[in-house]
From TrEMBL:
Organism this protein belongs to: Schaalia georgiae
Family listed: Belongs to the bacterial sugar transferase family.
Stored InterPro entries: Bact_transf (IPR003362)
Protein's recorded name: Sugar transferase
Pfam families according to UniProt: Bac_transf
MF terms in GO: phosphotransferase activity, for other substituted phosphate groups
Amino acid sequence: MTTLTNSRAKRYMPTFVVPSAARGSALDLAFKRVIDIVLAAVGVAVLTPLWLVVALLIRISDHGPAFFKQTRVGKNGQPFTMYKFRTMRVDAEQVKASLEAANRADAGAGNSVMFKMRDDPRVTRVGRVLRKTSIDELPQL
């Protein structure tokens, strides 16, 4: 069996080119935008009761803000603020340093660059359910 070099492999790679006529006219793009806005509004209306229940559960279980916000880098290097339902204790960042040291000790010689614990004690009971069901990601919509 022979292997293809990079240049030969690229020649056989399937490509998909959208003809300029199929990209849509200004009217098509405007119609698509209206549909996107209407569907987003319906989605928000349907999900708002769930968001309120989740926010209330977070506030009751761990007296802190319901939302976690963080600045991330997006398209073209532009920073944006990402919102999620809070799944960790309010003091999670302060506790992280001591947990990182314990995590490295457990890892032994194969220390990982990334800090991720299997059963992170900073995650709240409500937070575990939110993470399992990915409901904590809903505010990003």
